[in-house]
UniProtKB/TrEMBL annotation:
Full protein name: Methyltransferase small domain-containing protein
Family to which the UniProt record says this protein belongs: Belongs to the eukaryotic/archaeal PrmC-related family.
SUPFAM superfamilies: S-adenosyl-L-methionine-dependent methyltransferases
Domain Methyltransferase small: 55-149
Length: 155
C-alpha cells in the first residue's frame, strides 16, 4: 500500500516562480517511502552494512534544503506518523510561501527559513536527524541567475 502524495495547488506555485513538483520530486518521494517502509536507510558509508528503518530512529528534527513546493517535507511528515520539528529552507521567498500552503493543506506543521543551503543554521549542526535535499540541476547562464532561475540552477 502506497502512502498518498501530499495535496498541492498548481496556482500556489506562484505563476511559475516556484519549481513545480516533477519526476525528480516524485522519484525522491518513492525512494523515501521505500526507506520508511522497508528499512534501507544507510547507517554509515560501509557497503554491506545493515540498514535501519527511518521510523525506528525516531527522528526529532527533519531539515529539507531547497524545499520548492514543500511536497517532500510534507510527505515525510505524514509518513513518519509522529510529531517532528520540520524545517524547510529555500532561497526563493515564493517557494517558502508555497511550502507553507502545501503543509497547511495537508495538516502538517512546517517551519520555513529563507536561506541558501544551510546558511544561518549553525545552531542545528549535529542535531538534524533526517536531512532531505533534492538539489537543483538546471544549467543556467551567469546573467540568468536571479529569482526563480537561481532556485532552479545548481551553478
Amino acid at each position: 500500500m502506497s502512502l498518498p502524495t501530499p495535496q498541492y495547488k498548481l496556482s500556489a506555485l506562484r505563476n511559475g516562480e516556484v519549481y513545480e513538483p516533477a519526476e525528480d520530486t516524485f522519484l525522491l518521494i518513492d525512494a523515501i517511502e521505500k526507506d520508511i517502509k522497508v528499512g534501507v536507510f544507510p547507517t554509515n558509508l560501509e557497503i554491506g552494512r545493515i540498514f535501519q528503518d527511518i521510523r525506528s530512529r525516531q527522528p526529532q528534527i527533519v531539515l529539507e534544503i531547497g524545499c520548492g513546493s514543500g511536497v517532500v517535507s510534507t510527505f515525510v511528515n505524514q509518513a513518519l506518523h509522529r510529531k517532528v520539528v520540520s524545517i524547510a529552507t529555500d532561497v526563493n521567498a515564493k517557494a517558502l510561501e508555497c511550502s507553507l500552503e502545501t503543509a497547511r493543506m495537508n495538516g502538517v506543521n512546517l517551519e520555513v527559513i529563507r536561506s541558501d543551503l544551510d546558511q544561518g543554521l549553525q545552531r542545528l549542526q549535529g542535531k538534524v536527524d533526517l536531512l532531505l535535499f533534492n538539489p537543483p540541476y538546471v544549467p543556467t547562464s551567469e546573467e540568468a541567475k536571479s529569482n526563480i532561475v537561481s532556485s532552479f540552477s545548481h551553478s
